[in-house]
Structures are given as C-alpha cells and as structure tokens.
Amino acid sequence: WNLNETSGNAAADQVAGFDGFNLGTYSGSGITLGTAGPRPSDGFLGFAADNYAPTFSNKLEDILQMAEAAAYGGKTDLTMLGWFRFNETVVANPLHFGGLERPGAANRYLFAAHNDEVNGGLRARIRQYDSLEEYAQMSRLDVPNDQQWHFFAMTYSGGTTMSIYLDGQLKDRDLFAASNGIVTPSALVFGHDVDFLNAPERGLNGQLDELAFLDRALSDAEVLQLWTASRTPIPGTTATAPYRQTSQSLGGLRSYWRFSETSGTTAVDSVGANHGTYVNVAGFPVNLAQAGPGADQGFVGMPAGNTAVRFVHPDGTNYMEVENGAVVGNPETGLSFEDGVSELTMSFWFKNAFNGPGYVAGFERGGETARYIFTTYSPDDTRLRFYVRAGNEEEILSSYVTIDEPGDYQWHHVVQVWDGSERRLTAYVDGLEVYNGTNNLMSESLAVPEGFFVGRDQLALPDPLRDLGGFVDELALYDRALTAEEVFLLYDSAFFAGTTSKIPGDATGNDVVDEDDAKALAANWGVTSGAQWADGDFNDDGKVDARDAAILAANWGATSGGESAATAVPEPGVFAALAGVLAAFVVGNRRGTRKPRCEL
After folding, report:
1. Both 53 and 169 in a single domain?
2. 456 assigned to some structural domain
3. 291 has which bridge partners?
4. Residue-by-residue DSSP string for 151-181
5. CB 3.0 to 4.6 Å from 497: which of 209, 300, 352, 514, for a disulfide?
6. 53/173 same-domain check
7. pLDDT in tens, 326-366
8. Is position 451 within any domain?
C-alpha cells in the first residue's frame, strides 16, 4: 500500500500477494490524505519529489483497516514493513503503528508493533498458535521523537525467530522454543489499535507510508538494502518506495547505460563510467533519442518521453563499443575477467525491427567461431538466443526463445544470468524464466573477452557481421547472479506508477474522475492480462474488473485539487448512472484477453 492517495477513502493495494489484492479503507475525520511523505528534500533520494502519505491526528475513530486479515493466520514466515513519523516532540500517550490483531482487553497483538512507552519507543509482538498461545515481545525499540521519517521492519522466520529493525539496522532478535504459525487475526489495522474493551486506543499522532506485507522473512541484508535504496537516487524512475526494485536499488550494479543521449557519440555509463562510443551516429544508421519504453507507451514506472537507441539494419558499421570490454564496470577499477568473473547478470529492454540476424549485446572475443562469452543474439524478428562460455572453453547455448509474432514488434525486458557456482545459465523475458541450463563440465569463471558491444558482432572474422535492426534501452550489468524474484520485480517496476499525481480512477489523465473514465473502464471490461492504467486498470494487475470499478466509484468526482471523501464517493443516483454506462459499453465493446508479452 503506497498510501499515495490524495482523496477518497480507499487505500489501494499495489500487489496481488498471497491474500490477493487487499484493499484498505480510511475511516475517521482526523485523517488527512495527500500530505508530504518521505521525499528527496528530506534526504530520501529514492522517493518521488511529490510522494504523499496520510497524516493521523490521534482521534479515536481514525484508522486504516485492510479488508483481509484471516489469511495470515498460521503463517510461520512473515515480514511487515513501513515508514513512520511521529509528529509529537514529547509523546504523552502510546502510539500505534499497526499490524495483525484481534479484539480484547489483552492478548490482542498477534503480529503488530506499537508504542506503549511515553517519549518514544516501538514494541514488536508476535503470538504463536499453540495450546498455550505462546507470546513473545521484543524489547522496546528506542525511536527518537525527532519528527523525522524512519523505516521500520519486523520479521517472523521458520515459526521460531522474530526480528525488529529500524532504519535498516537489526535492533533485536528473539526465539520461540517451538515452531508454530501465528494466531489467526481478525483485523489488519494501522494508525490505531483495533479494540480495547470496545474502545480503540493508542491513536497515532503522525504519519505512515509505504506499508507492505511479505509472506517470507526478509534477511538482514535485504532489509538494509531497502533502507539503502531509499537514500539512493534512482534516475528515470517515479517509484515512491524502495520495495519495487529498479536498476539502481539492486545490489551489485556495475554499469548502467540509459541511452538517453540526444546527440554526440558518447553512450554514458551513469554508474561505472565505462562509457560507450556510438559508431556512425549521425542520424543513420544509428539513431539516438528514439522512443523507448515509457509512461506514454504504458510503462508507467518509467518517465514519459524515455528515449532509446536504434540500430538500423543493414548498412553495417552500426554498433556501440565500451571503453574497456575486458572488465565489468569501471574501465580502470572494475571486475576483471582476467581475475575471474564467476557471477554476472545483463539486463536490458529490447524491441526488434528487422527480420534478420542481429547481435543484441554482450561480451565477445575475436575469431571465426567460439566468440561469444556472455551474449544475447537475435536470429530473426521473433526469437532470441543466449550464450555463455567458460574459461575452460566449455559453453552453454540456450534454445531459441520466441518473444514476438512475425512483424509484431514489442518492447521486452530481457535478462541473462550466469551463476558459476552452479554452472548455470538462466534467461528471462518479461519477468519470466524462459531458459535454465547447466553444463557441469564448465569452469566457474567466464572466458576472457576482448570487447563489449551492442548492435553488432564486431569481432567476427574475417569480417564483422550480424548487424542489429532494433532498439535497445536501459542496459545494466551486475557483478552477481540476480534471483528470479529480483528479475521479476525489476520487470514489474516498469508497470508501477509510483507517483499518484495520477488520481485513482482517472483513466483519461484529465485530473478528474468522471464519466469519461467510466467509459474507458467499460470499454475494456473483462480484459484479463496486459491492461494499462488508461484502459481502466487502476490497481496494476493487468486486468479490468470489479476491483477497478470499486476504485473508480470510491474516487468519483475526485480532482487534482483533492476532493473530500464525501464528495469523492458517488451518490446512489450516480452509482446507477455509472452502472448504466458500464452496461452499455460492456455490451458493445467487450474485448478478449490480450496476447501475452512473451510466448515460451
């Protein structure tokens, strides 16, 4: 829940987790939406400049409650994350962060955090489901009442181990004697205790932002990584939270070419300074400032107007070459292949534009054969193939992977991973694994290349060949093997509109939720994959269904000026009119499922 709403009473769930989409509801007159959350101006460079967060004013009726809670019962592995800020310099009353609870005068905190000490502190509490309902409480986590933003996390691992973190650092860890899941909760609430003798207490005087639940226990390193990402600038993204992975929030990034140049011959490596040189850049055949995957094309996690480089087949001398193609990263201090590269990941966006063989990107060496060290190749306009060669000359060549229908060129996110410890090559397209192969005869480290090229097999003998006809963007190299989860999140971040300067329900982008937005939703009603915001997919699940209609209804009449919850919810007559619009357009404009982005 990014809590970035500026009006209405719905807190959208951005991710379909193990409990499905879990819509939240703001209740009470003391909650103010659309107030400033953690932002770059506060030192959190990984957040959007216009990030928002709700403010709670410690009124008894103020609460944020999620629709589903019971699904968490029995879980032995959980993580709760969130950002908070206390608004009181001196805390006179206990404050509630939130979590999984049940009503009662006692024993109601099942997986939750609150402050029961004046002048600071948070406690994490977990209650196991066993015959005694065994209970563990972390020692109080001191939190300065400095009216600053802080990052909080608590985890439960293996049904035995509970941990608590502040600003990325482990603060305490405790163990149960036996492994059990947590007691089944009846409520998932934030900003206020669910019930104390039929009277909720411990109201929050402060703010919450970027709340998340995971059905696994994050490691110490992962929690620290999230905190670090919040302090790191993320060029070209609009994500409001570090939970969605971007190229720069994943550890091990050595080089990152964004291909955002509009002129000149230099392809800037914004991370490793291993800059590339465009050959034959003057307009044709290499074209700069071409339309890349951006918000205006449905990739709402990227900026509108994002640019890419295009290589135009078949005029030859058509490529990009980096300064030092025998290292990963900085040309002088980067990871040297001579010293051994046992893990490597290459990630980029690609759109084909020609039915012919093309060298997309990778490390290679000169020769008539056995040239490709770590390379992605496009044999035609529908397929990709992946190569890796070890230092002992053993290799893996993937099967051919179909990504497009003939002539139907689409943007795809492509990732190639080498894990030398397992002698494994894994490839992904659009977040999904498309190849996984091993060769136990291979040595752990890769062979030593002589160059890194994009767009052409430049070191082929007797002459360069395989001039690419297509677009490349956002090329990144990592000195480690990204996991399948990290690859998926990296892809998924392109479809996450982190900043809700967008109004929930405003499909047309005209800063008001009205009949035109209902028409857009109705025209796409029933689409089960590939839907975008402009189609009426307001919860980013690729579908247009009742959840999106609920978001539209909850924000009816909302404007960029911020309508109140009362005016944002349609009156009964408006509901009837909306139903009529939906009915009319669904009958006349029902569409089927869109084709998948990648066919295996």
Report:
1. yes
2. yes
3. 307
4. EEEEEEETTTEEEEEETTEEEEEEE-SS--P
5. 300
6. yes
7. 999 999 889 999 999 999 999 999 999 989 899 999 999 99
8. yes
